[in-house]
Fold this sequence. Notes:
24% of the residues lie in helices and 28% in strands. With 303 residues, it is of the alpha+beta class. The radius of gyration is 26 Å and the shape is elongated. Strands 2-3-6-5-4-7 form a six-stranded antiparallel β-barrel. It has a four-stranded mixed β-sheet with strand order 8-12-11-10, covered by helices on one side. It contains five helices and 13 strands. It starts with 5 loop residues before the first helix and ends in a 12-residue tail after the last helix. The protein folds into three domains: 6-36 and 246-301, no CATH class; 56-61 and 142-229, no CATH class; 64-139, Thrombin, subunit H.
Amino acid sequence: MPLRSFGVLCDVVETYTGVATPGAALAYVAAGYRRVLDGLDPRDAHVHVWACLEPIAELSLPANVTGTATGVYSAPLVQTTITATTAIFIPSQVGQAITVTDGGGAGVHLVLQIASYTSPTVIVATGGNAFAGKAVSLPHHGVYDLPAAFNGLLKGPIYPYSALDLDNFQEVSPQDIFAEWQSGQTQGTPCKYAIAAKAELSTQAAQGWAIIVAPKPDVDRLIRYRYRVDAGALVPLDDSAKYPIGGPHMDQVYEMAGLADAEARLTKSAGMWEARYQQTMAAAIDADRALFQTDGPARMQEG
C-alpha cells in the first residue's frame, strides 16, 4: 500500500470523530505524525531512527553570484552605483571585482572593483560608466544554504563526479574558514568546510543552516552528503497533494497514530486505537530495520 496523503489521513480521523471542522482533524494527524517520527519503540522505549530521516542530498557550489543590474556613473566621484534587481551583495564582497557583461559596449565586459556596500541590492564600485539591465557576476561569498529541515551531517560531503582527493575535504571550525578568507581571496577547489547557523532577524522563519567552504570555488562544483532531518520542521497540511515522509511500511502507523491521538484527547484515555498504534508502530520499526540493513539496529543506539 502506498503512503496516503495528509488529506486522506485527515478524512479517516474525521470519520472517527464526526467533526469536519477545518483544521480539527489535522491537529490529531500532526500530533500522531510527530509521534511516529520521534521513533519511540513501544516495546522497549528505545528510539528508532527512521531511514527516511537520514537522506542523501546534493548541493551545487557555484563559483559566482550572478544577477541583472543597472549602473549610475558619477564623473565627479569617479564611481558607479550599481543596483541589482535581486539581493546578490554582502558586505564582505568589498574589494572584490564585479564583471558587467557588455558594460563597456557590445562584446566589451566591464570589470570594476567594489568600493563600498550599501545594501543587499546596492554597491558602489570604483570607476566605470553607466549601464542598464546588464548581466553582472562576482565571486561567490562561499556560504551555501542547506535544506530547511537540516539537523546535522551524517556523512561529510564528497565530490561524487571527480577524481579529486576526497580525503582532503576536511571539516574545520567556522573560524578557520573565516581565517582562510581573510588571508586571501584566491579561488580554487574547496578542501575545507564548516557547518554554521544562519543569522535570522525574524521569528517568522526558522533559523537555517549553511555550509561554508575554503577556498571559495573557482569553478562550479557539486557535493554529495547525508544529513539528519529535523522531524519537527516537517509540517503536515490537510491537503490531498501533500504526503508524509517515509516508505509504504509506515502508512498504517501514521493512520493509527492520528486515531490514537484523537481517541486520547476525546475520551481522556488510551483505548483500542492506542493498542493498534503500538502494534503497527512495532511492525513498522521492524520493517524499517529489515529494509535498510546497511544502517542496521546498531545505529539506533548511537547518541
